[in-house]
Structure formats: structure tokens, C-alpha cells
Amino acid sequence: MVTDMTGRRHALAPSFIAGISDADDTAMNACITLRTGAMLLITESLDELMTRLGV
Question: For the whole model, what pTM was predicted?
């Protein structure tokens, strides 16, 4: 479950995710790219997200 910058929560199956990266130079937010091409800017840093996902 991730929360985007608008406050909406998303439950994403791993098969929907094409990639995860830092959203900006501050490393405060991460960006999840979905297989559909859509991008979610989320409120967690890349490090926090990867730790939570166990990667």
C-alpha cells in the first residue's frame, strides 16, 4: 500500500510495477512506474519504500 502526493492510497500487485526510482534530487519522494505507463509520485523516499518491500 502506497500513498501518492494527493493523499490517495494504492494497493499495487508486484506484477503491475515496471520500476521504482527517486522522484527528485532531494530523495524525499519515490516514483513508481506502472506497466501501463502511468507514474505514481509517492510520499515515501526510495530507501523507505525499498526497506518496507524487503528489497
Answer: 0.82
